[in-house]
Amino acid sequence: MTTATATAPAQSHAGAPRRNLAGRIVDRLGSGVVQVVMILLGLFWLVPTLGLLVVSLRTTEVNNAEGWWTIFTKPAEITIANYADLLAGGFGASFWNTVAITVPTTILVIGIAAMAAYAFAWMEFPGRDLLFLVVVGLLIVPIQIALIPVAALYGQVGIFGSIPGVVLFHVAFGLPFAIFLLRNFFIGIPASLLEAARMDGAPEWRIFVSVVFPLGKPAIASLGIFQFLWVWNDMLIALVYANPANQPMTKYLQSQMRQFGTNMDILSSGAFLSLIIPLVLFFAFQRYFVQGMMAGSVK
Amino acid sequence: MAVTERLDGPQDPPVDDTGGPTSGPADTPRTRRRLGPSPTIAIVFLLPAALLLGIWVVYPIGYSIVRSMYDSTNQVFVGLENYGTIFSDAGTLKTIRNNLIWVIVAPIVVTTIGLIFAVLTERIKWATAFKLIVFMPMAVSLMAAGVIFRLVYDEDPDKGVANAIMTVVHDTFSSSQGYPEARAREGDQSPVAAQEDGSVVTKQPVESGQTVLIPIVGVKPEVMPADAQPAVAATGGDGLSGTVWFDFTPGGGGVNGQPDPTEKGLPGMTVEAVSDGEVAATATTAADGSFRFDGLPSGSYEVRLPQENFTAAYNGLTWLGPTLITPAIIGAFVWVWAGFAMVLIAAGLAAIPRDALEAARIDGATEWQVFRRITVPLLSPVLLVVFVTMIINTLKVFDLVFIIAPPSVQPEANVIALEMWRVAFGGGNNQGLGSALAVFLLILVLPFMIMNIRRFKRGES
């Protein structure tokens, strides 16, 4: 997959067909229509988020009186009052809870999954293939199946409502995909590299830390960002396992949903703040992904 | 650089990745066995993952199955009774029906839109920007997407952009300003009379050059346009002209059937000049209620106010009401997932050999034939991956329904995953039934689990 997609742009330019005049005119007209359609579709995808941003930048009174699109004729109505109110309330704490849940989860998933993936990819042990099939099967297990049992377990151990409880649940359900992704990447590491290290008598943990982990960086980076986004954006697990003191932004905002109309100021600004970090990461890591894919496709 | 390269890697559903990097294990086992570490070390590397998966994922599956056979108190064994409840309770049956709608509609729509977008992005220069825009919702939490669409679907066309667009489009094609419950002044003195179909028609035929007065009563204050001007009796002249006005003087007084100084015109009324049952001309009243048919051939006409004038103004749809709630939420789901489908399918498209397409074009195949007979069949593995991923996602859909459906409408929009949470944690307090719903959900995704395993095995060998 990696190799195929990396060379794709070159292919798409290579086969530009020669056409007769009539064909070219038809193409030109068609492409004009396509341009317009695509601009409309792009707007269709952009406008809802833009609406959220504008609503978050206007007072509730203004929002109740007129549509957000009137902002284009009345730019003076922009205010950051909603954000000030939001941060003065309980939102700030929930933001830090989201960070406290997301960062450890991402690190733990990467570390634990990388170890297991290395074992699956480059170690011999009985039942390896069968165990890996189990991992493949677990990829799509719905988390609902674990909500009740783990709640009971947490109750007994005494971590129900706590951040570690939320983190561990996330880590466990992040593992199947993480192991799967990394194992498939690690298996592509040239055998000669590992054999050379083993021949030198390097212990396995050393090979893992200084050979496999660095070579796996592109896949680990991709995994990292997706794991981060999944946990950052989760609502269901937080809803069940995080008590109000430990709740992340999603649960905090959900608790404000009941009075949607009157809480529009908090909800719009909170929702926008909650999506700003994922968006920044998403755009920033685009570049990282390119490098990773390039590095991966040189083999 | 296409977004493709960056986006498809980790998003790629597992099954597709397995062919992955080239130097697979096939050529290595012999050497590996000789040099590899002992199984003990392998166990050390696997232990943390195995413990977590065992305690948080595998053991709960067994626990849930057992728990689903007990009642809410966990004291009484009830066998399959909880499952019986799922299929007999009207509320849960509705959630199953809703999930069925989701599974049938959403994957097809998402895959189709993804395919269309992927094909179209090949024809524009700003494909990267387009892909970024459409893919962006993937990075956003479903919670935030839910808030975004609560705003989009607001029923008030002055708040919700969906209804704002619909009313603009609607009003472009039919310009009536609605005056519900307004009616023509009755009585022998009145020049007009109401018809059975709800329209208002002049009693006497009118020649061009004449003027018509159409007195209307019963206009509700809240529908009276703010820009309405005092009514002025039309002065005749070329063509057929007249005035439609609210024949009511606040505080009493004034002459019925005549536009008095304080009485206001009714702007935005559609007026038709009818000759022999055919509409010869259409006009719309101005702010002072006046209208004029220009260039009307001479002859006698009936002047008619069609029934649409007396219905409420069009305000769009009740997206968040009981009828439309599921389609509306599916719309939000499509907004979220179309980018995923597009990026995956675009990667598949890029991998199709251009030669095959060109050869077909040179042989005289139309673009549609090329698309239908070559592109789509070659893409079918990717399309299947997208389709199956969407089925699994629709089965598990939770956040969007929970956030977008207002509490009063939620029973109508309910889905299995939400019902499971509601029953077990959100007030229902019946973990027996909750477990049964969770197991039911697991059974629903089981075929796809087996499919994944099969496909993985095939890819490995």
UniProtKB/TrEMBL annotation, chain A:
The chain crosses the membrane at residues 29-47, 95-118, 130-154, 166-186, 207-232, 266-285. Coiled coil: none annotated. Pfam families: BPD_transp_1. Gene3D superfamilies: MetI-like. Residues 95-285 form the ABC transmembrane type-1 domain. Keywords: Cell membrane, Membrane, Transmembrane, Transmembrane helix, Transport. It comes from the Bacteria. It is found in: Cell membrane. It is a multi-pass membrane protein. InterPro entries: MetI-like, MetI-like_sf. Belongs to the binding-protein-dependent transport system permease family. This is Carbohydrate ABC transporter permease. It comes from Nonomuraea ferruginea.
UniProtKB/TrEMBL annotation, chain B:
It is a multi-pass membrane protein. InterPro entries: Ig-like_fold, MetI-like, MetI-like_sf, UgpAE/MalFG_permease. It is found in: Cell membrane. The keyword Transport applies. Keywords: Cell membrane, Membrane, Transmembrane, Transmembrane helix, Transport. It holds the Pfam family BPD_transp_1. Residues 96-452 form the ABC transmembrane type-1 domain. Residues 1-34, 177-198 are annotated as: Disordered. The keyword Cell membrane applies. Belongs to the binding-protein-dependent transport system permease family. This is ABC transporter permease subunit.
